[in-house]
Amino acid sequence: MASEQLEEYLESILDIEEKEGIAKTSAIAKCMKVSPASVTEALQTLADKGFIHYEPYKGATLTDQGWEMARKVKRRHRLLEVFLHDVLHISQNNIHDEACKMEHTLSDETECALCKMLKAPARCPHGSLIEACDRDVGSCSACLAEPGSARVCTRDEPLMPVTSLKPGQKATIAFIRGDTGVVQRLTDLGLTIRTEIQLVRKAPLLGPVEIAVRKTKLAIDHTIADHIFVTSCMEKAG
Amino acid sequence: MKGCDTCSGCHLPSGPGPIMREYVVALAGNANVGKSAIFNQLTGVEQDIGNWPGKTVERAEGLLLHRGQRIRVIDLPGIYSISALSTEEQISREFIAHDHPDVVVNVVDASALERNLFFTLQLAELESPMILAVNQMDLAAQKGISIDLRKLSNLLGVPVVATTAIQGKGISELTDAIVSAVSTRPRPHTISYGKEVEDRIREIMHLLPSRAGGYPPRWTAIKLLEGDSDALWEARGQVPDVVAAARAAAAELEKIHGEPARAILSAERYHAAERMVAEFVTIRVPGEQGITLTERIDRLALHPFLGYVLLILTIGGLLVWTFIIGAWISEILLGYLSMIAPVEPLMTGSISAIIFNGAWTGLVAALTLIIPYVIPFYLFLALIEDSGFLTRFSLMLDRGMHKMGLHGKAIIPLVLGFGCTVPACLSCRIIESSKQKFLAAFLVTLVPCSARTIVILGVVAAFVNIWWALALYALDFILIVILGRIAYRVLPGESVGMIMEMPDYHVPHVPTVVTQTWQRTKSLLWIVLPSYLIGSIVITAMYAAGLLAPVNAALAPVTVLLLGLPLMTGVVFIFGIIRKEMILLALAAIFGTTVFSTIMTPVQLIVFAIVTMLYVPCISTIFALAQEFGWRRALAITLLETVLAIFCGAVAFRMLSLVL
Fold first, then answer.
1. A51-65, B154-168, B290-304, B360-374: which range is least confident on average?
2. What was the pLDDT predicted at A220?
3. Would you say B457 and B469 are in contact if contact means Cβ atoms under 8 Å apart?
4. Domain containing A102 — which CATH number?
5. Helical H segments across chain A, by residue range
6. Whether the predicted pLDDT of B248 surpasses 50
7. What percent of chain B has pLDDT over 90?
8. Do B415 and B393 touch, CB atoms closer than 8 A?
């Protein structure tokens, strides 16, 4: 299977899995606009390559390897959307399809340069969160300040924004994105890298999230919290 | 410690000289740890306290006399970090760094020591003599936290005193410690950072002249490395090479750690605090499953549905109280007071009769204003502040405030604005970005303060009906939202999101609530009563001298033509600029009656109330705005609101004339 097609499949499975828990063949077929028969064939190939767990008649879920790959493509897709929309002023209707075609050919270096140029955006024009990159940096300002070329070392743990934790879930801070003032404020309040935090609750309608850190509770604006990336403690243990 | 043999106040530097020196002691620490409570206990001054971060926005001073020493105690606004962001934090930072108090009493919250010690370690770098007051020991004990104070004292190298300020526990020990510290000047230990950081601090220190700008060189070096703009600015004037060297060193650090130098230093301070806390704090976990009271209440107060129901009930209850129960009490009170002497502001008669009538009318007006409306409101405000509910309002309404380019913290000044606009404007300091701070202050001036509520009640609710009074309130809220949205678009600058500490709830402390209510009421009494008396006399005098007619004539195009109000209201509006409560008094004095329905039609009464509600904020508010944002902006708000008031009044006059 061509890598382009493979990545498209992984992306669709990620979307469906996030919504429904498991990606059924029929759902994938609908999403990719192909016949269920060709989906079954593709899923078999993906399972052989170790990107997904596939059970006939039940559906597919991503393996860690597949998830990592799908996330990476998603990130590129959304970064490209921001670029097409904000820089090139392509109309909102077309950016998704354009980005779909471009995302497979983007190199790590270009992705990084694009992210820097767009000042590390948090969300795509449709409002979906852009995942953090897997470069081994402590914050975006470090990346933006750095003049040289991309470093090779990468993160080994999956990252997620603090806003995607469930109430009561604990996690460790890995990375804070944002302008220096906000990052400094959060650091001063005790949100330093590798600190354990707990999500207490999320206010409705994308309101502030309340997190417990160092025996205190902080209410943090949702947009700012989107920029705080954590590694879940459970995944770390497992 | 009892008796003279253990007295620490005896080793004075050289005995009491002819001129007694006054020592300065500053209370500093994170927000909402109880600095003001300690300040009140030490000095007997009644500084407002409450359970929300940002309560103290201006430094307060009081005098402590103990063992023959005069000690000036300064209560500083809460500060989380020396590299401070918001105005109120900068006040603290400046005072500690520039004014060099003799001793800094660092107040810390016993139940959140890690976060509190982060600031302590920053303070230590300033090398000013320090005492640590570990406050809220009772709450820490409830949470099963026990603290080895001796070990803490050894680790930091300064005296440590345990206090529960709200109950007055540990205050005498703290007083003794302060008095002895002004002569012994205990200096805290500073922490050492990682080798790569320390090397660079030393490098910068070598380039610095000794005691540059009166600060310890190590502190200056650290601030330069952190890229602190104030430190950079001062260093540029003295030693320009240092700035370049500091920038280069910071860039190197950033390369090593992949984080900005500031964040690296903050993280290291936190690690040091963590290590210290691990040494002297033990936590008994009586049952991790046991849900705390705060968590229980939050499940209701911050519930996605019930939370809003609670919020609406609270605000609705307050309105109902003001408009229905308050008005009822006010009427009864007026009935009783009229039995003592008739309330009839006479404009004629002997000078003594005029003065008596002015004084009596003033007193009655003030009492019927303060007892039914102001005291219950301030009591309610003190309750929601002291319990910790006010911060939950912020969290729940954060999203809605985004529509006006504000965030949840702005709820606090807006709620305070229902009481008095002046402190509400000052409390806007808790908002970090200057655009949002100004925006919040602008909207605060539109919130109907207690004085404006009185006018709406006394004019519209009393002589038209209660529903029109409520409609005016509704109109005001709609205007706040619309103007907020417009101002958000028009004003330059950016809006940032909320980051706010959520304190634990506690059962309101009765003496605190009562004192706070009384303090606020008292300040109103001291201003309202004299201004009513003087106002009465001035109006009478001006009337007698024939000075009112030209003022009225000058304002006639606006009052009569645009607004359709009686000619005499012109001068009433002028008096209202001094204080808005004066409007009712002036109206009664000039027209010689308190039954306003005999002098104005319902439409005129409503238009009159709309203009009063919106026009020029009172003179104290204008001064407060000028102090915070400069005269240009203060006058711009004044002008804008006057135009708005005339516009709304004129539109209402024309539209209501068709209906009523």
1. B360-374
2. 94
3. yes
4. 1.10.60.10
5. 3-20, 25-32, 36-48, 64-82, 92-102, 108-117, 140-145, 180-188, 222-226, 233-237
6. yes
7. 31
8. yes
Residue A110 to residue A112: CA distance in whole angstroms: 5
Domain count, chain A: 3
Q: Is the pLDDT of residue B41 over 60?
A: yes
Residue B609, pLDDT > 90, answer yes
Q: Within a domain: residue A142? A: no
Mean of pLDDT over chain B: 84
Can you tell me the mean pLDDT for B112-120? 93
Please give the structure tokens belonging to residue B231: 């430190």
Q: Which fold has domain B195-283?
A: Helix Hairpins (1.10.287)
3-state SS class at A228: strand
Nearest CA-CA partner of B109 in B119, B98, B123: B119
Tokens in use for B30? 């994170």
Q: Is residue A107 part of a domain?
A: yes
If one counts every other C-beta atom within 10 angstroms of the C-beta of residue B1, the result is 9
CATH number of the domain that residue A168 is part of: 2.30.30.90
- Do B403 and B487 form a contact (C-beta atoms < 8 A)? no
Decide if A118 contacts A133 (C-beta within 8 A): no
B83 has a chain A CB within 8 A of its CB: yes
Q: Residue B589: its pLDDT value, please?
A: 75
At B53 the pLDDT is 79
Mean pLDDT of B535-543: 72
Identify all chain A residues contacting B256, using CB atoms and an 8 Å cutoff: none
Is residue A33 domain-resident?
yes
How many beta-carbon pairs under 8 angstroms link A with B? 134
**Range in B416-430, B491-505, B539-553 with the lowest mean pLDDT:** B539-553
Please state, in angstroms and as integers, the Cα–Cα distance from residue B501 to each residue in B32, B54, B119, B263, following that order: 9, 10, 15, 20
Domain span including residue A96: 77-131
A196 touches chain B (CB under 8 A): no
Write down which residue in A12, A39, A62 finishes a domain.
A62
Residue B147: which of B190, B174, B113, B117 has the closest Cα? B113
Does domain B4-184 fall into CATH 3.30.390.50?
no
Which residue is associated with the tokens 């205990």?
Answer: B186
B391 touches A at CB < 8 Å: yes
Average pLDDT over residues B517-528: 77
User: Nearest-CA residue of chain B relative to A167?
Assistant: B299
How close A149 gets to chain B, by Cα (Å)? 12
Question: Closest to B501 (Cβ–Cβ): which among A142, A207, A216?
Answer: A216
Contact B260 A215 (CB under 8 A): no
CB proximity B80 to A under 8 Å: yes
B114:A215 CB<8 A: yes
pLDDT more than 90, % of chain A: 13
Domain boundaries, chain B: 4-184, 195-283, 306-491+513-659
Higher-scoring residue by pLDDT: B589, B123: B123
We report the CATH number of the domain holding residue A55 as 1.10.10.10
pLDDT at res. A32: 82
Closest residue by Cα to residue B117 from B85, B156, B147: B156
Provide the shortest C-alpha distance from residue B79 to chain A (in Å). Answer: 10
Q: Looking at the whole model, is its pTM more than 0.90?
A: no
| Residue B302 to residue A188, Cβ atoms within 8 A | no
- Is residue A167 located within the same domain as residue A225? yes
pLDDT score recorded for residue B135: 94
Tell me: do A231 and A164 sit in the same domain.
yes
Q: Does B620 touch chain A (CB under 8 A)?
A: no
Residue B289: pLDDT over 60: no
For A96-148, what is each residue's pLDDT tens digit? 888 888 888 888 888 888 888 887 888 888 878 787 777 766 667 667 666 54
Q: Estimate to the nearest angstrom the gap between the alpha carbon of B122 and the chain centroid.
A: 25
Contact B253/A at CB under 8 A: no
CB contact under 8 A, A142 and B398: no
